[in-house]
Amino acid sequence: MTGSSDTLYVVRGRWFFVSIAAVVVAAPLLAWWLIGPLRENNRPASDLDYYVRAPDVPGWLVATIGTAALVVAVAAILNLARPINRRRSRSSLPFMMPLVIAGVLIAGIGRLITAGSEGANIGGGLAVLFGLPVVAILVGVAIVAAVRAARRERAERSARTNAR
Questions:
Q1: Segment 49-70 mean pLDDT
Q2: Is 139 exposed, middle or buried (0-12, 13-18, 19+ CB in 10 A)?
Q3: Annotated domain spans of the chain
Q4: Whole-angstrom Cα distance, residue 120 to residue 40?
């Protein structure tokens, strides 16, 4: 059956998944911007030790990207909260939220390992040691949840088709 309602469903479905992808991508960029650079303030940056040096990106560019990520995240969340998407949004939370949390953790770990410190950066090492396995587990949870949601959706679609 091809009609305007099918076309509308495809468009709504496409924007729904674009909104999910936008939230997942915007969350770590927003977190990176909000956390900001970490370093000891009483010493010049050239005198500090670094686990990994952060890329030399101008502050205005980080602020622009952070602001854009905020706007994109808010717009995507508002789209997901629309009445037409509420049921689908609730069913997508089990795989969307672990990815958002993993992205925010990656941003936090990135800020920790690029922090300037006097001597060893113990926090950066601990973040890598314990944070990265948590990120891997969250991504695994998201994959399992996405597969389960796809199977459930396929079963519901099959049941609706067979009921006709």
A1: 90
A2: middle
A3: 4-163
A4: 13
